[in-house]
Amino acid sequence: MENFILYEEIGRGSKTVVYKGRRKGTINFVAILCTDKCKRPEITNWVRLTHEITHKNIVTFHEWYETSNHLWLVEERVVNHMAAKIIENVCTTFSAQAQGFITGEIGPVLWYLFKHSTVDSLRITAISALCRITRHSPTAFQNVIEKVGLNSVINSLASAICKVQQYMLTLFTAMLSRGIHLQRLIQEKDFVSTIIRLLDSPSTSIRAKAFLVLLYILIHNHEMLLLSCQARLVMYIERDSRKTTPGKEQQSGNEYLSKCLDLLIRHIVQELPRILGDVLNALANVSGRKHPSTVQAKQLKMCLPLMPIVLHLVTSQVFRPQVVTEEFLFSYGSILSHIKSVDAGETNIDGAVGLMASEEFIKITLSTFEAIIQYPVLLKDCCSTVVDYILPPLVSLVRSQNVEWRLFSLRLLSETTSLLVHQEASVDSDSDLLALIRDVLLPQYEHILTEPDPVPAYALKLLVAMTEHNPTFTRLVEESKLISLIFEVILEHQENILGNTMQSVIALLNNLVACKDSNMKLLYEQGLVRHVCNLFTETVTLCLDADNRNSNETAAALLCSLLDILHGMLTYTSSVVRLALQAQKSGSGGDTQAAEDLLLLSKPLTDLISLLIPLLPNEDPEVFEVSSKCLSILVQLYGGENPESLSPENAENFADLLTVKEDPKEQKLLLRILRRMITSNEKHLESLKNAGGLLQALGRLAPAGGSSADSTVASLAQEILQAAGR
């Protein structure tokens, strides 16, 4: 018993005395029973029954001791629990009796019981009573904070059990709603962080009340929204929004959570225009100034760091559809215009907020629009606002001395233009978008395309995006005299054909050649054939190199694009030649000279025949299809011009293909290519006579009596064999 101090006697029986006691070193009062040893059996049974039981209606047993003459039991002193329970029950009602408990000491007394009791049932009763009395008079909890300190209360909230946390959140809600301790609470970062951590609670009620407390904080201090976003508030909102989706069967707790969430979401959505307005006002006040005043610098330091809030909201599926409006895009475009002024050196904010903070602000602002354009539906009804207010400053940033902003703006322009062109099926000559690109952006390309990587790559991606969906932009590229610049980029980067720049160049050439309105004559005259031959040769070499597996995927993608380019060029040439021959035959006097000039310009493409044939056995059916079409057009136009067309290796490829291919259509195409080669060049005929494997393959296709579907195949094979003297 040396650990306890005995006070006055508080009760007596025939062989038992009850004392008020206290454990040394604490202020926890207990009931200490002193009884005669003759009652050992009763005491033993009592201890056995109660030492593991915790219940609000059973006195809690703590420990027992034995001295020479007595047994001593230490139990909970029930008086405090009963008093707290009475306050809790009476203050549940709004009666005159409840008003009688409202004194200056009631709050601290209940808090004292809560903090110093070792029994959860008493702690819960005490905090519940404090919660109920605070409904009548918030000063009760105010007195607690003033006496023990806000940090102590916050620490208790963070470490409490769920039931206590629920009551304490109710206490803080009552305080904030009445404006008591308002300024201190809304400025206390630890308080906000603790509330947000409670959103991890498994209890629906605790999360709902935490959202409600945060709502009161944000109503009075919107700067805390930044801290909340950084502490993952948006993520918690999204998580609980999914759990409370309309249409799901909701329990009462979920319904309450849903209402609290809706209130918080609505407030944050309404708060965003104010934040953007503050940022705009701060920037407008220093626009054109090299040396902002102290007041202006302070305003910038307060407002610019709030920009990450915007990024957090536009990347959220809950907030994004509600905040990205036409008004939002207009404000965003205005901020970009100020950034353009800062980048051009017309406005100086570095001195006010620091270089790192200034660059971070610009980066966050650009990242915001990058997040928006990932969801084209957001811009569907606001295209004119984007073109009028957002694209012009982005175009200006292309001239930035900061390489990061230059690349960022080019990437945004590329993706945005692609969206706008895709949504606007027709772009006429009076289009604001067309005028902006023609008059402001494209004149900069002469300088941009000569810069070091990766600037040209991003600039070319923008051209690819422009020309992919709309022929108007293809004409614009031609009229802007960019073709020669594009070919200079090829010469500059041809040693790295798998690099991003060359991939963009090839994609752009593919778009230009595929467009029906392209000026192909211009492309041919400026060297398209030579460049395509070089690119095709190098790409095929990479694809056929068995040791170059690491880059096979990229090389294969480039090969498909180059095959499409080659097929487009050959189709164009074939069409011009056919029209000239038809005109000549009909006597209408077609321009045969133009056709002859075009054939002459295209003649270097015959060098590709010896590369196209090894591509025919490719596993990709698309490669075979386009390669065989290109080969067919080349031999139709130029016959057996290429001396390596039927080299032993190529003859063997033809033999394998004629053996493997079972589709009569594919067999006929291959046989017609062979027939054209040998009938137009004696050297190829001699090569065929010496190609035993190819002759055997032809012999298997030639026997008479085949089905009607194969009759043309057999006839072609027989004709080739006869030409070879078989």
TrEMBL record:
Residues 7-117 form the Protein kinase domain. Keywords: Kinase, Transferase. InterPro entries: ARM-like (IPR011989), ARM-type_fold (IPR016024), HEAT_ULK4_RUNKEL (IPR056981), Kinase-like_dom_sf (IPR011009), Prot_kinase_dom (IPR000719), ULK4 (IPR045906). One of its GO terms (molecular function) is protein kinase activity. Residues 272-474 form the Serine/threonine-protein kinase ULK4/RUNKEL HEAT repeats domain. The keyword Transcription regulation does not apply. Pfam families: HEAT_ULK4 (PF23606), Pkinase (PF00069). The keyword Transport does not apply. PANTHER family: SER/THR PROTEIN KINASE ULK4, SERINE_THREONINE-PROTEIN KINASE ULK4. This is Unc-51 like kinase 4. It comes from Rousettus aegyptiacus.
